[in-house]
Write a structure and sequence with these properties.
Layout (H helix, E strand, L loop, with lengths): L1 H10 L5 H14 L4 E2 H7 L6 H11 L5 E6 L2 E6 L19 H13 L2 E2 H8 L5 H9 L3 E3 L11 E4 L1 H6 L11 H6 L34
Antiparallel strand pairs: 1-3, 2-3, 4-6, 5-6
Helix pairs in contact: 2-4, 5-7
Length: about 220
């Protein structure tokens, strides 16, 4: 009887951490999109700890050509940032976001959550429905919570796909004005009133956000 009980308990034992690390690696490698801890836990055997496995896996990939990175509230395996130039396309992409779309996306990224009226106030011109629809279709912005103000206007925020596309863990990692200029990504002044990201401590960064960083 005791032997049967031990066999039954062994069925619910979590695999060794080394094996859990391999499982997490396999899930991230096979997934085309970042995977959350809850999704990993749902796929792994009962009692597994994907968070701890990620710590070990992330450490193992340090200094390698690919790295384990956090994207929003999910995780992914991505090319090391200093090797991104190896992945550049040889052909020139001719289709880019319009100036209106770039400005709108920039404002949402640096001001989120932000309403359409607030976007228009910052830009100084109206925002067409087509511009917003395009950014939603690209899955770079989504609807946020409604404001508890008259009319309860909907807000807009950037998506996890946006963060993943630009290699950001969160919106707090958006580049400042100096970084954009040093990288040659800032060619013109931003729309009036565009404010810096939440961690900025440079007065000049009040102008940032308008750049080719958001061109596709």
């Amino acid at each position: 009887m005791t032997e049967d009980r031990n066999d039954e308990e062994s069925l619910f034992e979590a695999p060794p951490m080394g094996e859990q690390e391999r499982m997490v690696e396999a899930v991230l490698f096979a997934s085309g999109e970042p995977v959350t801890l809850s999704d990993m836990a749902a796929r792994m055997p009962h009692g597994s700890d994907p968070a701890e496995a990620l710590v070990h896996l992330k450490r193992r990939y340090e200094g390698r050509g690919v790295q384990v990175v956090k994207v929003g509230d999910a995780w992914a395996i991505r090319t090391a940032s200093d090797l991104g130039f190896l992945m550049q396309k040889e052909s020139v992409e001719t289709r880019k976001l319009s100036r209106a779309a770039i400005e709108t996306l920039s404002i949402i990224a640096y001001h989120q959550p932000v309403t359409r009226a607030e976007i228009e106030e910052i830009r100084g011109v109206s925002v067409s429905r087509g511009t917003v629809d395009l950014l939603i279709e690209q899955e770079w912005i989504r609807f946020g919570r409604r404001r508890m103000t008259p009319g309860r206007p909907v807000t807009f925020v950037v998506t996890q796909e946006f963060l993943d596309h630009f290699g950001l863990e969160s919106a707090r990692d958006l580049p400042g004005l100096k970084e954009l200029r040093s990288a040659g990504l800032l060619e013109s002044r931003p729309p009036p009133g565009l404010m810096p990201g939440p961690d900025s401590d440079d007065e000049d960064e009040a102008e940032e956000g308008q750049s080719e960083l958001f061109e596709d």
